[in-house]
Amino acid sequence: MISLTDIAGTAKPGTLYGIGVGPGDVRLLTLRAAALIQSVDIVGYFAKKGRQGNARKIVTPLLAAGQREIKFEYPVTDEIPADHPDYHDQIGSFYREMAATLEQNLKEGLSIGLLAEGDPFFYGSFMHMWRRLDDVVPVEVVPGVTGMSGCWTRANAPIAWGDDVLTVVPGTLDEERLKDRLASSDAVVIMKIGTNFAKVRRAVQAAGLAERAVYVERGTMSDERILPLNACEDVPGTYFSMVIIPGQGRRI
Amino acid sequence: MISLTDIAGTAKPGTLYGIGVGPGDVRLLTLRAAALIQSVDIVGYFAKKGRQGNARKIVTPLLAAGQREIKFEYPVTDEIPADHPDYHDQIGSFYREMAATLEQNLKEGLSIGLLAEGDPFFYGSFMHMWRRLDDVVPVEVVPGVTGMSGCWTRANAPIAWGDDVLTVVPGTLDEERLKDRLASSDAVVIMKIGTNFAKVRRAVQAAGLAERAVYVERGTMSDERILPLNACEDVPGTYFSMVIIPGQGRRI
């Protein structure tokens, strides 16, 4: 039987890999992602200040002792609204410095695997590095299982059937716009719940979709929580939470 | 270094696994999916009549000689419209018989891995088996990298930034509804292009999005084709084709 590592290949010198690490369970990394993490010179990842970082935590079982790592700590995450000039300034400097660090190491011939939760091209911070470095160094993006796939799987809720239209909405939208989006879709995933929980629930209720809505927190992780939105008594605020509204399209 | 197979685990007797095989490149299977394919008693898959089946083709490098397989051949695919009573009757009988075959083997204690292109709970035929068997036998669904993730990755087109709303629309919708959906979204993926190509292109043009639209055929497979929608001269009709319209949300 062929070994999974043999299929997946290894890292090339001087190349930046944007590696999707999937929704949380390490078994949901792709063969390519796992093999690259085990073969790059440096594993890089984002983290909230003073934390280990979720992506880094997910891949822990894959890392060998002595693996070289670089942690990039956000100067700010949700303490300031993303449309505030201070947020823009602080995150802008952080991204510029981070890109310079990556570029220097890559130009010295080292390979770097930059971890991204879910899929790197789907609301990923990796995209801000891709934007700066894609024309400068060799870059390979490794798609991943999205957080939302992990969540609807664990909720045992097939999301889109037949001709269902699926809308993915950030919970950061204002309430009226959220409600409009919900009302005009067959199936919905609401991401980035965090501190937006109460607003999101009101919008789902106003759109008449609360009966079908499922709240999923840390789907596929060991401490996941899944419950009907109507049964949520408190107001959770975890980063890794979503509301899933499955479609009702063609069943045969 | 830990072996990837050791992380991913093996199949349990009498269990049905709905296995997402990702967009096309075998390296984009998850560790869990690959290890299950190598350990189930029977690998099952859907196929168009007389064909090998795309999912089966994707996992070929993982299969050992002598692996037991069952091919389930659709009696009809796109020869009859999906809303025609004959389609419903023929596909309905096929699904019922298929579920009975699976159930019989599972109850004899065999484990079965039923392959699904992309993610099993995202427009997957597997869902029709899940619906019939989830309360009858143990079922585990293994999420996969969706076809659309594979396509936007290969098109080098990050799909959703910041507060972008992403809409996933089947190309089977009528032209007016398609156009409406396109006009009210930041980022769009149009699936199920197939014979709908001309209509889809007209809708994209009418919504003023043709400049940003990318046509991706068989993304991540060896014979993929990627080109700006405006540069498509002919009218392709492949099952594995999509139109990707990347969002333009917050760049920092």
CATH architecture of the largest domain in chain A: 3-Layer(aba) Sandwich
Biggest chain contact: A-B, 75 and 75 residues
Termini gap of chain A: 38 Å
Sequence of secondary-structure elements of chain A: HEHEHEHEHEHEHEHEEE
**Structural class of the helices, strands and pairings of chain A?**
alpha/beta
Oligomer: homodimer
Q: Count of helical segments of chain A?
A: 8
- Radius of gyration of chain A, in Å, reads 19 Å
Largest sheet of chain A: 5 strands, parallel
Task: Estimate the strand proportion of chain A.
Answer: 15-25%
Shape of chain A: globular
CATH class of the largest domain in chain A: Alpha Beta
Number of domains of chain A: 2
By DSSP, the count of extended strands of chain A is 10
Low-confidence stretches of chain A: none
CATH superfamily of the largest domain in chain A: Tetrapyrrole methylase, N-terminal domain
Strand order across the largest sheet of chain A: 3-2-4-1-5
Q: What is CATH's topology name of the largest domain in chain A?
A: Cobalt-precorrin-4 Transmethylase, domain 1
- The chain-level mean pLDDT of chain A equals 93
- Helicity level of chain A, as a percent range? 25-40%
Enzyme class (chains A, B): transferase
Keywords (chains A, B): Cobalamin biosynthesis, Methyltransferase, S-adenosyl-L-methionine, Transferase
Pathway (chains A, B): Cofactor biosynthesis; adenosylcobalamin biosynthesis
EC number (chains A, B): 2.1.1.130
